[in-house]
Write a structure and sequence with these properties.
Elements: E1 8-12, H1 16-27, E2 31-35, E3 51-52, H2 60-79, E4 86-87, E5 91-93, H3 103-112, E6 118-120, H4 125-128, E7 142-145, E8 149-151, H5 153-166, E9 170-172, E10 178-183, E11 186-192, E12 197-199, E13 202-205, H6 211-216, E14 228-234, E15 244-246, E16 251-255, E17 259-263, H7 265-271, E18 272-274, E19 280-282, H8 284-297, E20 306-313, E21 323-326, E22 333-337, H9 341-358, H10 372-375
Parallel strand pairs: 1-2, 1-13, 2-9, 5-15, 13-22
Antiparallel strand pairs: 3-8, 4-8, 5-7, 6-7, 10-11, 11-12, 14-17, 14-20, 15-16, 16-17, 18-19, 21-22
Helix pairs in contact: 1-5, 1-9, 2-9
């Protein structure tokens, strides 16, 4: 199969999906313009926990896609073995000590798929992965996944944009928000808030939590389950933790320079209020409680201090599965909308570029088509 005649594309959004797709298209000789309403990674990609994994239980197509995503990061890691923004030091997960604990079922499921998993008691953890307060682990034990890791998405996006620029790609960040331009029933480019037009053969919508609303402006339905997310990054400090921790009350991952990133659904639910002007109010007491929960799961219960706080929508489709590919009712218009933006960041860009270039569907994306919401 050969590529079709597409010679130009506009990408709306400079998060990981948009930039990854743009680089893949530029590598294939397409003239690409990225439009973003500010600096790159100023949305969900800048406040993502960025845990690289296919842990727990999900559909087999989604698992296969995530494993392909991890594979691409492994290839990238081989190119940059000393990078402090991409690490594979494993992930450790445990559940609350109540009737919702699914550690045994999750472990059995992961093993059935050949996903590298070790069941550990609290006493076993220190010899396998350092830096964890073993006393915080519930009696049902924890799962350690040696093949998991994490990525700092702003650093990765910066690396990809460097290549993109060298390939002749254009990045526009000073023209406000953009919208797809539809003429004669097909996508022909994009218009910015300042009234500038960027015409192209294909348009890719990759604006994170804004995708469903922006698609709806063109009459297209995409189910939306986006919640508010709160990501706290600590000031750097010396600590032996290297794995990503997913615990009942807090998720913790290392970050470049010795910092740690923290999040929890309860903290976002309890600590963030939407203001009438569209901004957010953050409850300092909830942030303090999140820091305390993180300290409790870390060896030595260190004192943690806030460096930055990120708040905004966490892209999650209505049925939890990725939404990727052509909006078939509008030729030339494509979307990328998913949770697991970090894990899928490289592979979705690759597969979406394949579809844009060839005008054909990639089989790995068969169950993730946007039109499934219109048919439900």
């Amino acid at each position: 199969m050969t590529d079709n005649t597409i010679s130009s594309a506009v990408i709306i959004g400079a998060g990981i999906f948009g930039v990854s797709t743009a680089v893949q298209l530029a590598r294939r000789g397409v003239r690409v313009t990225i439009l973003n309403d500010g600096s790159p990674a100023n949305g969900a990609s800048g406040r993502s926990l960025s845990w690289l994994n296919s842990a727990r239980m999900r559909s087999l197509p989604y698992h296969r896609l995530r494993m392909a995503g991890i594979d691409r990061y492994r290839t990238l890691s081989a190119r940059f073995p000393d990078a402090d923004w991409l690490r594979f030091d494993g992930g450790l997960t445990w559940d609350a000590d109540d009737e919702r604990n699914e550690i045994d079922a999750a472990y059995r499921y992961e093993v059935s798929l050949g996903y590298d998993a070790q069941w550990l008691s609290g006493a076993d953890v220190p010899r396998v992965t350092p830096g964890v307060n073993a006393n915080a682990i519930t009696p049902q034990g924890a799962i350690f996944n040696p093949g998991e890791g994490w990525v700092d998405l702003p650093a990765l996006i910066g690396l990809l944009l460097k290549e993109y620029s060298e390939l002749g790609g254009v990045l526009v960040t000073d023209q406000g928000a953009a919208r797809a331009l539809i003429e004669g029933g097909r996508a022909v480019g994009a218009e910015t808030a300042t009234g500038r037009y960027f015409l192209a053969d294909a348009v890719v919508l990759a604006t994170g939590p804004a995708v469903p609303r922006m698609a709806a402006e063109s009459g297209q339905i995409i189910g939306d389950g986006t919640p508010i997310a709160l990501l706290v990054q600590t000031k750097p400090f010396a600590h032996p933790l290297r794995a990503v921790l997913n615990t009942p009350r807090v998720a913790v991952r290392p970050a470049p320079g010795g910092a740690f990133s923290l999040d929890a659904d309860w903290a976002a639910d309890e600590g963030v209020t939407l203001r009438p002007d569209g901004g957010f109010e953050i409850d300092d007491s909830v942030v303090a409680a999140l820091l305390a929960e993180a300290a409790n799961v870390l060896e030595g219960n260190p004192k943690l201090e806030v460096a930055t706080i990120g708040v905004g929508g966490k892209p999650i489709p209505g049925d939890g599965e990725p939404v990727v590919g052509a909006l078939k009712a509008i030729p030339g218009y494509y979307v990328a909308f998913s949770h697991s933006g970090a894990t899928l960041g490289l592979i979705l860009g690759e597969l979406l570029a394949f579809e844009v270039m060839r005008g054909a569907e990639h089989p790995m994306l068969a169950t993730f088509r946007p039109e499934r919401f219109a048919l439900s």
